[in-house]
């Protein structure tokens, strides 16, 4: 039963047989079998092809024996599905042909209805049948992170156009984020209705904001996206990078689990969050390249810290880098399971 899986038990702060572990970006370029399968197919096309989505999602589960699969897709898939002209450029990320910065631009962003993504339903259904007792995590991008790609036109370190819009035209910002919250929420809901056992809302770049700006301009929109699946009873994980100051606010947006990056210890994260949330994290991906004995010590220390949390899902502090050695990931799964066995 999925309800008895270590992932769902940990997410709902119940006792676990061992600490569950999965890796953000576990499917992808770190795996030779992924690179082979993706040969000749563009990223967005791959995300809309159920044969490829199913096989790519399963690859890391077979290889690493992780406790969950993460649906192979991308945060910009639902934006492309509603007609935004964008591409995922290898080595760069999502690039938007015409950035959204005016009211007229916003009119080019319609709502998402399930009939635009029947392939997502099909891929999830096939995966759930194949995965058996291993849970599938569905996901979406949060409104701020999606807005950043749309307003900037591509990846940004400063988010300057995004922040200028947020402060310069709060009404337009609000309307844009309301639309994005609908799109994210609908994307999550389609995945859960098709059988996903948990969801993760990625607000990867929201660590660029102060607590005040997060509260004024972002939190309620993330809450709308998370509320879209509240009645479906699956645990909701909420993650961002560099969000140490925002953790409690991100939990309050409507999550059962708060993702922690590597800048803050799990112990400090729990002190900030209180006992109402499970935590997920937080091995620094850079340590994947460190000598094994150093890495192993760090993994055990994180498992130990996690045992003192109300619930803990082991993960990296951010995604698996493309140059990671996949054998190291497999060994981490073994150590987490062995060291945490109750
Ligand atoms: O295994 C998994 O985690 C599932 C798949 C997944 C992808 N993207 C596949 C992908 C998930 C969960 C995402 C989410 C995503 N996409 C986020 C949030 C997570 C995070 O990293 O913070 C963000 C910010 C994006 C936007 C995006 N898409 C970026 C920054 C990139 C990398 C660009 C590059 O080439 O370095 C992508 C492309 C992408 N998404 C790849 C994968 C496997 C690489 C494309 C390829 O293999 O050709």
Give the key terms.
342 residues; alpha/beta; 7-stranded parallel beta sheet; two-stranded antiparallel ribbon; 16 helices; globular; binds coproporphyrinogen III
The oligomeric state of the chains shown is single chain
> Major sheet: size, sense and barrel closure?
7 strands, parallel
The averaged pLDDT comes out at 98
What general outline do the C-alpha atoms trace?
globular
Bound molecules: coproporphyrinogen III
Q: Outline the low-pLDDT stretches.
A: none
Q: How many strands appear in the DSSP assignment?
A: 9
- Whole-Å distance between the termini? 19 Å
The helix-and-strand class reads alpha/beta
Query: What is the H/E string?
Result: HHHHEHEEHHEHHHEHHEHEHEHEH
Q: How many helices? A: 16
Radius of gyration: 19 Å
Percentage of residues in helical conformation: 40-55%
The largest sheet has its strands arranged as 1-4-5-6-7-8-9
Strand content: 5-15%
Summarize the model shown.
By secondary structure, the protein is of the alpha/beta class. It is built from 16 helices and nine strands.
């Amino acid at each position: 039963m999925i309800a008895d899986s270590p992932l769902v038990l940990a997410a709902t702060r119940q006792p676990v047989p061992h600490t569950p572990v999965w890796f953000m970006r576990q499917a992808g370029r770190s795996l030779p079998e992924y690179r082979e399968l993706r040969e000749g197919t563009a990223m967005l096309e791959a995300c809309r092809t159920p044969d490829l989505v199913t096989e790519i999602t399963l690859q890391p589960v077979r290889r690493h024996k992780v406790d969950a699969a993460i649906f192979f897709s991308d945060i910009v898939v639902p934006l492309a599905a509603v007609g935004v002209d964008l591409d995922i450029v290898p080595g760069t990320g999502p690039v938007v042909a015409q950035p959204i910065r005016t009211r007229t631009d916003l009119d080019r962003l319609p709502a998402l209805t399930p009939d635009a993504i029947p392939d997502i339903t099909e891929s999830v259904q096939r995966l759930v049948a194949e995965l058996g007792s291993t849970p599938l995590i569905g996901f979406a991008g949060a409104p701020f992170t999606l807005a950043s790609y749309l307003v900037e036109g591509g990846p940004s370190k400063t988010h300057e156009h995004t922040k200028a819009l947020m402060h310069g035209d709060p009404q337009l910002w609000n309307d844009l984020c309301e639309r994005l919250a609908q799109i994210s929420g609908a994307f999550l809901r389609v995945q859960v209705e098709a059988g996903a056992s948990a969801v993760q809302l990625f607000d990867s770049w929201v660590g660029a904001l102060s607590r005040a700006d997060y509260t004024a301009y972002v939190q309620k929109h993330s809450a709308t996206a998370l509320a879209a699946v509240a009645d479906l009873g699956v645990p909701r994980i909420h993650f961002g990078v560099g969000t140490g100051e925002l953790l409690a606010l991100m939990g309050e947006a409507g999550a059962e689990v708060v993702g922690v990056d590597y800048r803050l210890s799990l112990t400090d994260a729990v002190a900030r969050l209180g006992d109402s949330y499970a935590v997920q994290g937080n091995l620094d991906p850079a340590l994947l390249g460190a000598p094994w004995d150093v890495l192993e010590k760090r993994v055990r220390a994180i498992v130990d810290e996690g045992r003192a949390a109300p619930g803990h899902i082991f993960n990296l502090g951010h995604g698996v880098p493309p140059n990671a050695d996949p054998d190291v990931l497999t060994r981490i799964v073994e150590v987490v399971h062995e060291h945490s066995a109750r």
